[in-house]
Write a structure and sequence with these properties.
Number of helices of chain A: 13
Helix content of chain B: under 10%
CATH architecture of chain A: Alpha-Beta Barrel
CATH superfamily of chain B: Rieske [2Fe-2S] iron-sulphur domain
Structural class of chain A: alpha/beta
Distance between the termini of chain A: 37 Å
Distance between the termini of chain B: 5 Å
Largest interface: A-B, 16 and 15 residues
Number of strands of chain A: 8
CATH architecture of chain B: 3-layer Sandwich
Helix content of chain A: 25-40%
Strand order of the largest sheet of chain A: 1-2-3-4-5-6-7-8
Radius of gyration of chain A: 20 Å
Structural class of chain B: mainly beta
Strand content of chain A: 5-15%
Largest sheet of chain B: 7 strands, mixed
Oligomer: heterodimer
Radius of gyration of chain B: 16 Å
Chain lengths: 366, 137
């Protein structure tokens, strides 16, 4: 197939470096095999994985493009989108002049796997493969610490293994955990992340075993993809209201691929109710919106597209110009083109912060 | 606007499409049942390459539960965000009033006329006995 690749002069035109905070490298189970014990390899061959999602093979909601990927991202040499580093460089990293990229592998990674020990073994293997298969070959690509987040003990152990290793950018959760993220069972994970000096990234998706909405299963993919942000709102509120940030004042959370226009409304609603019900949650010493603005970063993609782009800028202003990180979501179909995604009314300083400055300050890449 | 020879007509059979480059612009030429149409390759929404999209039809509904699939192959769906465009007009299906893929006039000319000019055909060798797709761009 004839693949169109942007001409290199476009990268030269980009005046500033871009840090892409959401890239999805694809691996196969075979890629992970060298880092899995024979016990788990045989187990996977015999029994396979068991997600927190009953009796469904494949995606519960069929995607709008094959494997939810850009149709032009299938490597000409074969294989799945974003499985071929050379083609990823040609189509994405080099053509846009990406200075650093954060890898958020989605599968196979063992996250949400029902067998806790298998989940831990796969998370370890997926972390090793990010280093050996990707970062070693292109050090621009930083890894995520994939954790088996439904088992706190194993998740903390994986974070401790990676502490101090600057090849890792953050600890990675998927958003649809089995309980709301502020619940105490997850607190040791936040503690380990703070001790390791790593932010915690929460990427939408995963399977909690429950419907996407609070009121049953939606019928359409358009509902599923829209309701990720609604589903994440509940966990953001939970993190704030349970007092996680009072206990871990250094904790930094990055919300990835969740959209962000809903954030001010959540802050307003929480503040309004908090003024009336402070005595229900006396452990909160500040208004909920203050925790929201201080502890949360957001990634841009899928960039909000308003009829009036200035509305999006007002929302960004509420969230804070230091808190917005550029992300492309390469190679998925809802990819944001780094050169075209941001609203046109931003100042030079705001653009520079979103494209790279904020991510550089947060992740301290070197 | 100059007229550019982009391919021999026989090289773009019905149901297929071809990507042409004309003075740095990428233009995708479609053959719908023997008639040729040309659109700028860049999706007006966010810049995806329309050439790499899926050629599909029009799905309409008069009410929930009733669907009509028509005009098979006459719609190109962007490989990125799935925006759909009428190949004949470039009109966007989801925002027809404001968004349109740039369209170019296309004709089929016999080799005999092309040899006489004034056509630009740097990359396509022209034989007088064949027919050629000419894009005005």
């Amino acid at each position: 197939m004839n693949i169109e690749v942007r001409r290199p002069e476009r990268a030269a035109k980009a005046r500033i470096g871009i840090i892409d905070c959401d890239i999805h490298p694809k691996s196969s189970l075979d890629d992970l095999r060298p880092y899995l014990s024979n016990r788990w390899w045989n187990y996977l061959q015999t029994y396979g994985q068991r997600q927190r999602h009953g009796y469904v093979k494949g995606f519960p909601y069929p995607k709008s493009q094959p494997l939810a990927c850009r149709r032009d991202a299938w490597p000409p040499g074969g294989g799945l989108p974003a499985s071929d580093l050379d083609f990823m460089r040609e189509q994405h990293l080099d053509s846009y002049g990406i200075e650093w990229g954060v890898m958020n592998p989605l599968s196979p990674s063992g996250q949400g796997e029902q067998n806790d020990e298998l989940s831990a073994a796969m998370a370890f293997a997926a972390n090793e493969y990010q280093l050996e298969g990707w970062n070693k070959r292109d050090p621009r690509l930083k890894a995520s610490v994939i954790i088996p987040y439904e088992n706190t003990e194993f998740a903390c152990a994986e974070i401790r293994k990676r502490a101090g290793d600057r090849r890792f950018a953050h600890v990675l959760f998927l958003s649809r955990t089995s309980e709301l993220l502020g619940k105490r069972r997850y607190w040791p994970i936040f503690e380990s992340a703070v001790e390791a000096g790593l932010p915690v990234g929460i990427h939408v998706f995963g399977y909690s075993g429950r419907p996407m909405s609070n009121t049953g299963w939606p019928s359409f993919y358009i509902e599923e993809i829209t309701e990720h942000s609604a589903s994440l709102q509940a966990s953001v509120a939970s993190l704030i209201i349970e007092g996680v940030f009072e206990r871990y004042p250094e904790l930094k959370i990055v919300l990835i691929e969740a959209g962000f226009a809903w954030i001010p409304a959540l802050g307003w609603r929480l503040d309004q109710n908090w003024k009336r019900m402070k005595d229900e949650v006396p452990h909160l010493r500040r208004a909920p919106s203050e925790y929201l603005r201080e502890h949360f970063w957001v990634s841009t993609q899928p960039m909000e597209e308003s009829e009036d782009p200035d509305h999006v800028i007002e929302v960004m202003d509420w969230i804070g110009w230091d808190k917005i990180l550029f992300a492309s979501d390469y190679p998925h179909w809802d990819f944001d083109d780094p050169f075209r995604a941001l609203p046109p009314g931003l100042t030079e300083e705001q653009r520079n912060k979103i494209y790279a400055g904020n991510a550089r300050a947060l992740y301290r890449f070197a | 606007m100059a007229k550019h020879v982009v391919a021999a007509a026989a090289d773009i059979p019905p149901g297929t499409r071809r990507l042409a480059e004309i003075d740095g612009r990428r233009i995708v030429v479609f053959n719908l049942g023997g008639k040729f149409y040309a659109l700028n390759n860049r999706c007006p929404h966010r810049g995806g390459s329309l050439f790499h999209g899926k050629q599909t039809g029009l799905v309409e509904s008069t009410e929930p539960g009733r669907y009509c699939y028509s005009r098979p192959g006459e719609v190109i769906r962007c490989p990125w965000h799935g925006w759909e465009f009428d190949i004949r007009t470039g009109q966007s299906w989801c925002d027809p009033a404001r968004v349109r893929a740039r369209r170019y006039a296309v004709s089929v000319e016999p080799g005999t006329r092309l040899v006489a000019g004034p056509y630009v055909a740097e990359t396509v060798p022209v034989l007088i006995e064949n027919e050629y797709v000419v894009v005005e761009a």
